[in-house]
Specification:
By secondary structure, the protein is α/β, with parallel strands linked by helices. It folds into five domains: 171 residues, Rossmann fold, CATH 3.40.50.620; 91 residues, 3-Layer(aba) Sandwich (Rossmann fold); 87 residues, Glutamyl-trna Synthetase, Domain 2 (Glutamyl-tRNA Synthetase, domain 2), CATH 1.10.1160.10; 67 residues, no CATH class; 98 residues, Orthogonal Bundle (Arc Repressor Mutant, subunit A). Helices cover 46% and strands 11% of the residues. It contains 23 helices and 16 strands. The strands form six sheets. Strands 1-2-3-4 form a four-stranded mixed sheet, with helices on one face. A three-stranded antiparallel sheet has the order 5-6-9. A hairpin with a 2-residue loop joins β12 and β13. The radius of gyration is 34 Å and the shape is elongated. The relative contact order is 0.07. The structure holds glutamic acid. Glutamic acid (GLU) binds next to β10.
């Protein structure tokens, strides 16, 4: 029986002419330096931080080189499928503004000429390549049951030998064509294994773009390439897909590093050029002085939904990811304030080979700086967008008062050193609700008075302010002069300095007076500039609040 006859027996009806696929998916017509990368998630749920990080880098490298970044869904493990998860993945990427050039765009549809981009629709292609290998005598069927494999494993463990299907343990490798025929005709199920020619004693050299020069023993395992359901294993699908999709750089988690000798062997077996590999270490987290992997289970920030819920602007998350990705980025960014992420030359060599340390505080700090540099209109837009999903009450208020809200967000913004109040959109309401009537009306109010806490005195100060010292048209300087007059009338120093020089001569100083005006107006002892707040709120609101307080504290 020839190999061809054997292959026909095992995979009847499958066309082993792989040259048609080679023609169908030709070399891409791109610049010599262009990099083709992909994000290849299994559709088991949602994208988490680690895989978002990988796709962020893949997108960046492709963009930097005028290359291509595509999304391939790896659903060959039919047991692990989760419904609608392609949409989940697509949405997660879109929400982080990580655009794909090709690939799945929802459960059913895709774009690009190198598809299908979902593995379950590529069965014919994989089987062609498997059959081709069978015909070459480089693969064989294996009929071992799970129990037999387990027995072998136990034996290997007992004898302290390497675990796996290789050498003398590779029983089915020695089956004769006649034995195979008989088993197939008896309806026995089988899988297909690679007939490895590797020698474990032999070392191969490999190069990883992040980890550098590596040395491994050659792969001598007859690994499974096609499962009994006719779908390929990850290893084989990786070979076929990344070859036919003309991936130049495989950027993936370093849990795959140990499979690299096998993958290189597979490419070599077919005579295909292997892609370059970049194995990214997992993102780490430090807790009580101990470093561990960022965990989906323990760390809320491992889920991408965390960033949306908190309202951390996407660009700020990306800036943070770049600080994790390249150790020289922060310095570059500091020196190139007018530039964007797109201008930064990403370099694999500047990636930590032991894994970046995730630090939420740092991310929030980056986000705070980022928001402080936005225009008020951009804060308004970003917040509107965020609140539409996460805070409908705030959304309605913002939507009804775009100009007013923009003025509020502009307080102390248009200046050389803008105020840094908000780390994320979910911070803003707590810090500005008193500026919006609708929110103010429904908010619980507590007044944290300090030096001046006597209700009578407070009421007198408020009344005097309204009667004598408030003038709607006052410039900031005039207003401040009037505040000093008010302080003086009540026996407080016009300047802090005067008070400090002669504390016994005064009840306090101007700061104590303005604090009262601030607290009654906003319920807060710390706010942005009081003059700005008053100007935006306007006379009617100021007086209303002061009068209401007086009335409520008679
Ligand atoms: N489906 C694999 C995973 O989710 C892909 C790994 C790769 O990028 O090659 O881990």
């Amino acid at each position: 029986m020839t190999n061809k006859e054997l292959a026909d027996l095992l995979l009847p009806g499958v066309d082993s002419d792989i040259s048609k696929y080679e023609k169908m998916y030709p070399e891409r017509n791109l610049d010599e330096k262009a990099v083709v990368t992909r994000f290849a998630p299994s559709p088991t749920g949602f994208v988490h931080m680690g895989s978002l990080f990988q796709s962020f880098i893949s997108r960046k490298v492709a963009s930097d080189t005028n290359g291509v970044f595509f999304l391939r869904v790896e659903d060959t493990d039919q047991k692990r499928l989760v419904e609608n998860s392609v949409k989940g993945i697509v949405d997660d990427l879109r929400n982080f503004e990580i655009e794909i050039d090709e690939g799945m765009i929802n459960e059913e549809e895709e774009k690009g000429l190198y598809g299908p981009y979902i593995q379950s629709k590529r069965k014919d292609i994989y089987q062609s390549y498997v059959k081709y290998l069978l015909e070459q005598g480089k693969a064989y069927p294996c009929f071992c049951s799970a129990e037999e494999i387990e027995e072998t494993r136990l034996l290997q463990e007992k004898k302290k030998q390497r675990i796996g299907y290789y050498g003398r343990f590779a029983k089915c490798r020695r089956l004769t064509p006649e034995q195979i025929k008989e088993k197939v005709e008896n309806g026995e199920t089988f899988i297909i294994r690679l007939k490895s020619h590797g020698d474990f004693e032999h070392k191969i050299k490999a190069h990883d773009l992040i980890k550098g020069a590596l040395e491994f023993p050659e792969n001598d395992l007859d690994v499974v390439i096609m499962k009994s359901d006719g779908l390929p294993t990850y290893h084989f699908a990786h070979l076929v897909d990344d070859h036919l999709m003309r991936t130049t750089h495989v950027i993936r988690g370093d849990e795959w590093l140990s499979s690299l000798p096998l993958h290189l062997q597979l490419f070599e077996t077919f005579g295909f050029k292997a892609p370059k590999y970049a194995h990214i270490s997992p993102i780490m987290k430090e807790e009580n002085g101990i470093k561990r992997k960022l965990s989906k289970r323990k760390d809320p920030e491992a889920a991408v939904s965390y960033y949306h819920e908190k309202g951390i602007p996407v660009e700020a998350v990306k800036i943070y990811l770049m600080t994790l990705a390249n150790t020289n980025f922060e310095q570059w960014y500091d020196c190139n304030k007018d530039k964007t992420l797109a201008d930064f030359p990403f370099d694999f060599k500047k990636m930590s080979s032991s894994g970046g340390l995730f630090d939420v505080e740092k991310l929030l700090n980056i986000s705070k700086n980022y928001i402080s540099r936005l225009k008020a209109t951009e804060v308004y837009e970003g917040l509107l967008h965020w609140s539409e999903v996460h805070d409908p009450e705030f959304y309605n208020v913002l939507k009804d008062h775009p100009e007013y809200a923009t003025k509020v967000f502009n307080i102390e913004r248009d200046q050389k050193k803008p105020r840094k109040d908000y780390s994320c959109y979910s911070d803003i309401k707590e810090q500005t609700w008193y500026m919006f009537d609708e929110l103010y009306a429904n908010h619980e109010k507590e007044y944290p008075f300090q030096t001046i806490s006597d209700s009578k005195e407070i009421a007198q100060i408020l009344s005097a302010y309204m009667e004598k010292y408030y003038h709607e048209e006052d410039s900031k300087e005039e207003w401040f002069e009037h505040m000093k007059d008010l302080a003086q009338e009540f026996g407080y120093a016009r300047e802090v300095k005067e008070y400090k020089e002669n504390p016994d001569a005064y009840k306090g100083h101007i700061g104590d007076i303005s604090l009262v005006l601030r607290i009654v107006l906003t319920t807060k002892s710390m706010t942005p500039d009081l003059y700005d707040i008053m100007t935006i709120l306007g006379k009617e609101h100021i007086f209303e609040r002061y009068q209401a307080w007086i009335k409520g504290n008679e």
